[in-house]
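Two proteins, back to back. First:
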Amino acid sequence: MSCSRDPAENLAKAEWRIREAAGNGAQIICVQELFRSQYFCREERAELFDLAEPVPGPTTDSFAALARELAVVIIGSVFERRTAGVYHNTAIVIDADGSICGLYRKMHIPDDPLYFEKYYFTPGDLGFRAFDTRYAKIAPLVCWDQWYPEAARLAALRGAQILFYPTAIGWHPAEKAEFGAAQHDAWRTIQRSHAIANGLFVAAVNRVGYEGPPEHCLEFWGASFVADPFGQILAEASHGREETLIVNCDPRRIEEVRRNWPFLRDRRIDAYSPISSRVID
């Protein structure tokens, strides 16, 4: 979805879109990263910390009530105020009875032009987690995490059947003509590779629309998608419209793919200890 500058308006929009998705049969519903505001990390301004909220707080209260009413699992996204001076980019998993299964705090924090997240977010300290819900075991990861195979693998080893990536990624308009197609293709490809390497479903949930003044504007490219355990795209949204994808993810497909492509079986866990090194000199 696109986002306005009004957090209450964005929450209300997300609420009716969740209702719409549930009415169309969705059982697990994921919103995009930092959906309650426009993407504020385009600039470094101390007053923007006022957008943060505690957990539990207004977003979790709203989504917990919706999850309980609609009997759906909701993956929410919160700019979490943990304490004075400590803020996280946090995904919250709410089960279909309205209870909070747990939190995932974004582990990989970028610092790029118009993505100044290190100014706002403390790196996550909960590790890579998977949560049992009424309908599936799921693992939320957040945006920049989607480029890291280690994150996807650790979530898979914890038993995740679906990886969800709430996301806010887009083009710098001045670069779009030259680099835009390749950037989007790389984003799509890396996440499909996580589905293949781990034999599970991957859902990427991105925002859409232009945000910011011309001198520091981003065009969020939408294109949310779901890939199956063989990396095949089951559904994909457009670049320019608000859309909700309803996608059937049959867990039997995980069993089928992993029996024929047993990557987890053939891992050489005795030989991987150097992966924890920054570089191997």
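And the second protein:
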Amino acid sequence: MEGSRILRNSQIIILGICIAAATIISSIILSKGFLKITKFVKEQITVTGSAQKEIKSDYLVWRSTFSTRQGDLKTGYRKLNEDLGKVKKYLTGKGINEKEVIVSQISTTKVYKKNEKGNDTNEIQWYVLSQTIEVRSKDIERVDRVSRESTELIEENIELESQAPDYFYTKLDELKIEMLAKATENAKLRAENMVKATGNKIGSIRSAKMGVFQITPITSTDVSDWGVNDTSSLEKKVMAVVSASFAIE
């Protein structure tokens, strides 16, 4: 009996020692793993890179509005329809493709007579009818020139108001990919220059986040946190910003 008790106690002691040893070894392994993870997370650098490129618009949208003021609707609609025919004829005569022309619905506004105090009465004095023509074209130079010359229609008794054209770049998706790649390259170059003095090197990229992407006139120095998409200028400047993190080796 005494021998069995001693043997059992010895087994319990040995088992306890094994469990303790396993716990210590596991703790060491986990600690090393944690240190490696911490080192992986901490030994990195985050920088901002940017890239710029000048582009020329390849698509134009030009809007112009013509109107008439008449005492009755019937006369107003007839006059506006005549003006529409003249405007279309003018545009096609200048070489603009009729398929590029979009005509809006007619807008009608009532103008009421004033009383002696300058307040509106219930009596209609005029009907003002207007219609907008929109030209969408890749032939930028031609349409741009016509937009400046369109005041010639005033000589045909057409009340025309020409707006400044809007200029667009249709390959923006492809350009954005190109610019983001160049901005990331710039970020890596900046990171390399920053850690060079420490004797370290830049490793693989850990993360990248797109920042401002904006299109401005070439001479503009404007910067916006929300980005800018200029449509007022034919020639533009594109800027892309990327925030990137790299491993330090």
